Sequence to fold (529 residues):
Amino acid sequence: MAKTAKTEQEEPLEKKLWKAADKLRKNMDAAEYKHVALGLIFLKYISDAFEEQYQKLVTQKSEGADPEDKNEYLADKIFFVPVMARWTYIQGRATQPTIGKDIDDAMDAIEKDNPSLRGVLPKVFAQEKLDKASLGGLVNLIGSATLGTKEAQSKDLLGQVFEFFLGEFALAEGKKGGQFYTPQSVVKLLVEMLEPYEGRVFDPCCGSGGMFVQSEKFINKHQDYYKKKGKAGLSLNPADRISIYGQESNQTTWRLAKMNLSIRGIDSSNVKWNNEGSFLNDAHKDLKADYIIANPPFNDSDWSGELLRDDARWKVLGEKLTPPTGNANYAWIQHFLYHLAPTGQAGFVLSKGALTTNTTGEGEIRKALVEKGLVDCIVNLPTKLFLNTQIPACLWFLSRNKTNGGFRERENEILFIDARNMGFLINRKNRDLSEDDIALITGTYHNWRNPDGNYEDVAGFCKVATIEEVAKLNYVLTPGRYVGLADEDDDFDFVERFTSLKIELEKQIAEEADLNKKIAENLSKIKLQ
Fold:
């Protein structure tokens, strides 16, 4: 009998780097170490890209090329890296006690020579609490990976590493981490549903820039769309198909966004920071976007609403509807609408409570959104998707014009999708959506809104309701109120379900009791020592 060769799949670069980098973190808080690790990864990337171009220019000296001329790099959209910031120089000093200051100086030098990076790069490496031996180890570790060459860029190696690190740091930080990071599956779902093929993409609470990165990925994935359009001279470069606009109130998060976009060659000149935020200091007052994709803070009570009672943004198609000062959910919705172009679409995350609330005028605003035909689709999400909150969440899709734009006329309809039972657990606290989940939800939405779609209601999952039907339910937008029970749940056995839940609960209690016993035993051993 022939032996079967057992092949082990090599662990991806991003996971290898993360495991090693996390070991070097020691006692440093993840929120701070994040900027150390990601800053070095960014430095390695731009140094790799520079070095490859540098060597090319060296071979072209006889033709007049100058490897030390900044313009030789800017022409190819490559950051110029001065001698003291090049990776070979930095890594050569990795074991020196001054390595922290050397890296801070390198970051300063890069910013001086590259105006688009000014105020962006972290200078946190010389701080006393950062162990210099560990920092040197991290430099050597990252030095073992090639991230910025043309070949590495074609494989999006750096993008994968950066994205993976962002996700792992968000997990490590927990609640605080979720403020800069929206789970990749949720971002992908929003972008795939909206299909931002071309136009202006806006995120007024952009975090680390995930919505923009996913929009670029969407364009790269759908190059056939542009080829089929067959226009003479049509560019297939994402940078020529969409322009991005963003705003972020947390400066360190804004820096992450700028780095995240820079490594992909995405123009981030319209991604703005101010500490007042989008409500008090709207950085894009005149912008009318084709797509708005966002994950604003849930139920924010401290948004300075009392200072904005007469703001122009509170008019919904001419009707003034002022959001409550104690919760920013509906202020965000109206902010999005204000910035939508006449045929624009918005997809965003909100807490599930926004679907039913009637507090201080929110019910009236929701009623106006429905009656004016602005609500296109509502998706109920599974629990545990978000790192910063256990509050149940949902997706809203709004459309300024549901009668054209290449889609089916659906002005009197709203699609409800209940995806609560989708996804899979990645650990005890967190859930994720699979590619199949995303494809099913996205396909359902597209089949409903496209003229040639083959949409059908599915009990327990999706249902198209008319505005009259929604009005009968007092403009409540919870999908579960419309989709009903799945066919297999029609013969629901309460005793059987209760018994299975009881068994599962008893199992969890037993496991926790066993864990507590082991902890107590270990504490006793420590005391005896």
Summary: Residues 1-8, 488-493 have pLDDT under 50 and may be disordered. The radius of gyration is 26 Å. Residues 305 and 334 are 13 Å apart (CA to CA). The first strand starts at residue 199 and ends at 203.
